[in-house]
Amino acid sequence: MNLNRREFLKLAGVTLTSATLPISFETFADAPQRGRILKYVAVRGWADFSAPVMGHVLPDSIQPILDVQEGWVRIPGGYVPIETLQPMIPVNAESIRKLPAFVEVFAPSTSARAWCAFDAPLTSRIEHGTVLQATERLSDAHGAEWLQTHYGWIQAAHLQPINLPTDETDTSAELSGYTLTVSKRGDVLAHFTVNRPPSLRSGSYRIKERKLENALHWSLYAASGVSLGGATWHNQFGVETQGTGIELSVIAARALYGLLPPGSRLTVL
Amino acid sequence: MNRRNFLTFSTSRPPLSPAQLYSQAMHPYPIEREAWQLTLSGLIQDGPHILSWSQLQGLHSVEARYTLENAGNPPGGPYINSARWRGLRLQEVLNAFSLLPEATHARLTAANGYQTTVPLATLKHPAALLAYAMNGQLLSHEEGYPLRVILPGVYEYKMPRWITEIEFIDRDTPGFWESRGWASDGIVKTRAAITHPVNGAKVGQKVRLMGYAFAGLRQITDVQLHIDWGAPIPAALVREGAYMWTKWFLDWEPALPGYYEILALAYDSFGAAPAVPERFGLKQQEWPAGHRIAVEVRP
């Protein structure tokens, strides 16, 4: 049996506190809870490094998430450390119709190539959850469709269109330690576990703008260079980041994008 | 592997070399065994010594499996293979004579004039052979009949066919390929290759990736696969012998259909091998330790 939705979101650094699901999380309503394996890792018989190795899972394999307990995730066959698995965004069955368009990588990862052919040189590796702007479409000699992006040509089979979350109103956020709490008219909606940069100063900031596609995806920008966004390349949150922005999981950043529209207030304690 | 295949794989020609170089270096030179002689000359006591085929017959012969690689073999190329070689231990042949203390190298000369020089230590390696049979059959003229040199850990251009003279000298001298820019030591570089699937193949969502890695006398300690530049995945290793390539395999289940690039990198007992962009037309020592292919995964 898979995790329930709330447990899955908690794995992505999101703790929901209200009884009803905020609008930003609606895409998770019926999505299967799956994770992307980040590195070659041993699957243990129980949630402990002393447990026998039952097998190994390969990076970029997709695993159903069955349970979470004290730093370990149960997948079919056993347990893997929580930092080796990244919760995956829901799959959107729609196809990409009009271009240019913002798209996201729903595959565990994909790659950009110099031109649209299977053996064209790789120009970049694109992680799961990355948001890109697709500008042109071409088919290769085998009939497969490719989309042109800033990074190069990417096979369309690994991308899906973005459905923007509906904006909440009257929300604000407060960052204390590594926990970002979002409230609506005084009611706490959700807690987010984040990585914060050492340069982040206490104060009150107003969200000025947001961008889908950037180094941190689903980014929110406030004054004084304060930014928040999703990190696609790891799954370790609740620590100090080496970067300059506040990092969340992509799932968390995706939701926060609608929870804190421009004009919302962010307080850093 | 049959003998015909080995012929294909064992030419000592870099693929991009001019045809006349190939012809000059590798022209098969028909020799009658009864008329053949091996001369041991140079810095050797009471030399030169001339050995006939019948004299060598009295020595104990051994058989072992070796992987031979051509120095011009591109990443994943066909100019490498393994075979059972039977012959006389060079060490035993040399022990029957007294070399002068100044002797540090041996210049090997073939009946067609091909020359290369190797350190004495390489020639005295317990696995160094004067081989007369491969895979249970006498060598053909093309393979070096009646005798060719087999040395572990070096490229094939350091192992002349149709050997007729071993001259002991006190320095390294450039031979045929060495004077054309190839490394004088000829030591095999560490390299992995993917043999299955082939570049451009269409595969299902469960595929066994297979290949080999070879580092000469150094042991292959790890072969790692990178899918689309992703995190390294260690392959299972199957060792076949001290002088042989190491086979590897990995059962890969790509999560989604689409195109993927697979890079195999070999690591030896001396640590990581460099992974630099692959370019053809470079000499072996400038090539990367990896082999790269692209495949299409179909549902």
Task: Characterize the structure shown.
The complex is a heterodimer of chains A (269) and B (299). Chain A is mostly beta strands and 269 residues long. Chain A has helices at 5-11, 250-259; strands at residues 14-16, 34-37, 41-44, 53-57, 62-64, 67-69, 72-75, 78-81, 85-87, 101-105, 109-113, 122-127, 131-134, 136-139, 145-149, 152-155, 159-161, 171-176, 179-184, 187-193, 203-211, 217-222, 227-231, 246-249, 265-268. In chain A, the strands form 7 sheets. A 9-stranded mixed β-sheet of chain A has the order 1-20-19-18-25-21-22-23-24. A 3-stranded antiparallel β-sheet of chain A has the order 5-2-9, covered by helices on one side. In chain A, strands 6-7-8 form a 3-stranded antiparallel β-sheet, with no helix packed on it. The mean pLDDT of chain A is 90. In chain B, 10% of the residues lie in helices and 39% in strands. Chain B is built from 5 helices and 20 strands. In chain B, strands 12, 14, 15, 18, 19 and 20 form a 6-stranded mixed β-sheet that branches. In chain B, strands 2-1-10-5-6 form a 5-stranded mixed β-sheet. In chain B, strand 16 (236-239) and strand 17 (246-252) form a beta hairpin. The A-B interface holds A 36, 38-40, 58-62, 107-111, 113, 118-119, 122, 125, 142, 144, 155, 157-158 and B 199-200, 227-234, 252-261, 294-296.
